[in-house]
Task: inverse folding
């Protein structure tokens, strides 16, 4: 009978051991699976871009290659078009190169036989055409394809003039830019013979009675230049004109004021002093891309000059991109992001300005003469000197993301220096995404450290007092109450911290700082006199194990004293306003939801975990160690500090590290109790944004599989890695403490 029970017990032990191993293995597999799944979403950020040839089209025999002034492609790569010098748009099918339609652009005045000198693409499928008479017209192309049920492709196309954007003939025009002016007319910027510049503004305004009033203003700039002009570019609003010279100089004029042209900048853009061969504004019209005859490619934008008041801005080289092997013949900006395509001989390079990544290198069969992107930027069309048009389908999913933009300082448009910055969205479609994870990592570490500085001393001292000094009866009531605190939802703590605690501290911030000094000082004084009371006195017998209650009035009195003194201190030391003094004297702005609120709220959430585990570890220290220490004449405090605490150190350290892990991954408290500002400052008076809170804020609005969406999953991977490193280091240190103290 006994043998049968023994066999049953052993069998149950083996089953339990097997189940425990299976459960542990499943936990490990689940954790690894979670890491694999979130990494799978984040990894495409670093996949290379790709392009494949969608079609090759031969020019019709009746169209000379040298007569083509512009080319283009449809977004679905089913059709291409070209513009010849006669002003005719020829639409071709990509499948067989057959002509779909030919449409003549309108001429000013109608009926004249003139030729197109140049065609400037101005976005949204629109072109400004400069005729050899000096007249300028603007047209918009509507071009699309539909796949029929029988597999054939039907093309629809149209060329319509743009109203209000057109100028009559003018003599001596070499190059021209036409821009609309707030629906009131237009302006024309002309490069004339002899490197002269002329700006003509024509406005049509209506008075209160509806009568039209036409005004025309003309200004010329003929001052000597540092070299002959070789390239020009104008922004979409007609405020600034950029020019490049044959000796590598980059010029910038202000043409926004009618009747006046001002030269703002003259800088050396080519390090080898080679001719500036191409200029183009990058999406957003803040940065100018500059290509030279040596193949150099860089981007520039105005930066506040050192020592100026802020209004004086000078062109500064910001990004140096991968150089081309030959002169940059043309620069094509993407209509969707900060990608720049540069044409050099038979090669086209695709680079992203912000990340400075070389995305693609495409090579044609012969030297390329013209190239253009489709309206959505997903197709590239190029014409070579062998009369062949090649259409590439582009796949560039995340050009703005690189290790440099995620973890390094980046010089963003409008900034005066490189910075770490997080700004995932903007009201404008041409904004420059700022996806640096450094401010978020910094905010996570800052929130965790401040919370631990608040929680660890209170939790450990409370655990030590509860275990070694508090009466067993009182301990049996206090410990469950503290453990119940751990069950309070973090959203409730965050709600109270953001809506109640933050305004309260905002009104009495000096009271908080004075309390940190006055309350401990009053406690030390009280303890000093407390020790003078005889051990056998009535007070000692009544309060033994309940000294905590005797200290509560002292703490409250200290807080009240700090409140009274804060008013006097603010009046006499800080000119009556502590927050204004912080800003005016130290340059520190006080935010209502700041790191002080985070430290208290997050610390309050962490204290129960640290307290419970640490108290259990301290209480499990063998009583014979305590008895031996007391028998040798040590006081209760000496025994607790020098015998009990070192013996329980592995368990206490585990409690601290578990609390650290709880704090680093907290979401709702950090989200609700701080301003969620991704700034890098150790100031107690500023807010922060952590990785976990950022995921909670951004993920509902992030487009599926977008760069932001995948960067948020990369943030989750970083949190996982942080937790893994912390747990690994904690376990290694715990094992070391265990060997040293021989207990846990």
Result:
């Amino acid at each position: 009978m006994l043998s049968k029970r023994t066999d049953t017990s052993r069998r149950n032990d083996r089953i339990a051991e097997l189940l425990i191993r299976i459960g542990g293995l499943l936990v490990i597999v689940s954790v690894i699976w979670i890491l694999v799944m979130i990494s799978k979403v984040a990894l495409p950020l670093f996949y290379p871009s790709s392009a494949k040839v969608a079609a090759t089209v031969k020019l019709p025999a009746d169209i000379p290659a040298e007569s083509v002034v512009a080319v283009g492609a449809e977004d679905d790569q089913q059709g291409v078009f070209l513009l010849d010098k006669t002003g005719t748009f020829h639409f071709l099918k990509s499948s067989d190169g057959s002509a779909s339609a030919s449409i003549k652009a309108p001429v000013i005045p109608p009926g004249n036989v003139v030729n197109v000198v140049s065609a400037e693409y101005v976005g949204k499928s629109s072109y400004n055409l400069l005729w050899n008479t000096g007249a300028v017209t603007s047209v918009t192309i509507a071009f699309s394809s539909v796949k029929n049920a029988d597999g054939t492709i039907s093309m629809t196309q149209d060329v319509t003039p743009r109203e209000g954007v057109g100028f009559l003939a003018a003599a001596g025009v070499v190059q021209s830019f036409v821009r609309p002016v707030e629906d009131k007319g237009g302006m024309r910027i002309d490069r004339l013979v002899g490197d002269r510049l002329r700006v003509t503004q024509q406005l049509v305004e209506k008075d209160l009675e509806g009568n039209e009033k036409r005004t025309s203003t003309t200004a010329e700039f003929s001052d000597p230049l540092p070299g002959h002009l070789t390239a020009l570019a104008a922004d979409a609003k007609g405020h600034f004109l950029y020019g490049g010279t044959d000796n590598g100089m980059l010029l910038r004029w202000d043409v926004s004021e009618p009747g006046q042209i001002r030269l703002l900048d003259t800088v050396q853009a080519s390090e080898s002093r080679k001719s500036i061969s191409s200029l183009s504004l990058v999406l957003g019209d803040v940065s100018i891309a500059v290509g030279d005859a040596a193949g150099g490619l860089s981007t520039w934008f105005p930066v506040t000059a050192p020592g100026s008041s802020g209004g004086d801005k000078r062109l500064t080289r910001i990004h140096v991109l991968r150089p081309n092997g030959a002169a940059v013949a043309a620069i094509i900006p993407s209509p969707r992001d900060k990608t720049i395509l540069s044409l050099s001989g038979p090669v086209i390079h695709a680079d992203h300005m912000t990340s400075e990544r070389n995305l693609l290198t495409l090579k044609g069969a012969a030297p390329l003469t013209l190239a253009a992107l489709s309206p959505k930027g997903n197709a590239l069309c190029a014409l070579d000197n062998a009369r062949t048009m090649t259409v590439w389908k582009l796949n560039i999913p995340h050009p703005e993301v690189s290790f440099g933009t995620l973890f390094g300082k980046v010089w963003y448009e409008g900034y005066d220096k490189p910075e770490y910055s997080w700004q995932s969205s903007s009201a404008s479609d041409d904004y420059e995404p700022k996806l640096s994870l450094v401010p978020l990592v910094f905010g996570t570490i800052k929130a965790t450290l401040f919370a631990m500085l608040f929680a660890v001393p209170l939790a450990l001292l409370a655990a030590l007092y509860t275990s070694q000094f508090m009466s067993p009866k009182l301990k049996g009531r206090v410990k469950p109450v503290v453990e119940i605190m751990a069950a309070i939802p973090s959203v409730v703590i965050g709600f109270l911290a953001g809506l109640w605690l933050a305004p309260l501290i905002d009104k009495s911030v000096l009271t908080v700082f004075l309390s940190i000094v006055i309350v401990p000082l009053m406690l030390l004084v009280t303890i000093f006199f407390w020790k003078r009371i005889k051990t056998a006195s009535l007070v000692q017998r009544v309060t033994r194990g309940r000294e905590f209650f005797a200290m509560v009035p002292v703490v409250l009195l200290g807080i009240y004293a700090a409140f009274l003194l804060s008013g006097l201190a603010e009046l006499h030391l800080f000119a009556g306003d502590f927050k204004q003094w912080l800003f005016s004297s130290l340059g520190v702005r006080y935010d209502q939801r700041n790191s002080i609120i985070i430290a208290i709220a997050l610390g309050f959430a962490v204290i129960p975990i640290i307290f419970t585990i640490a108290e259990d570890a301290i209480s499990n220290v063998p009583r014979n160690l305590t008895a031996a220490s007391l028998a040798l004449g040590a006081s209760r405090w000496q025994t607790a500090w020098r015998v009990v605490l070192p013996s329980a150190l592995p368990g206490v350290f585990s409690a601290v590290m578990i609390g650290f892990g709880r704090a680093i991954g907290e979401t709702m408290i950090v989200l609700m109790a701080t301003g969620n500002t991704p700034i890098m400052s150790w100031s107690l008076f500023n807010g922060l944004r952590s990785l976990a809170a950022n995921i909670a804020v951004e993920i509902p609005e992030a487009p599926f599989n977008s760069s932001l969406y995948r960067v948020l999953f990369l943030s989750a991977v970083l949190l996982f890695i942080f937790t893994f490193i912390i747990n690994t280091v904690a376990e290694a240190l715990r094992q070391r403490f265990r060997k040293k103290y021989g207990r846990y």
About this structure: The domain at 440-613+641-741 is CATH 1.10.3720 (MetI-like fold). The chain has a mean pLDDT of 86.
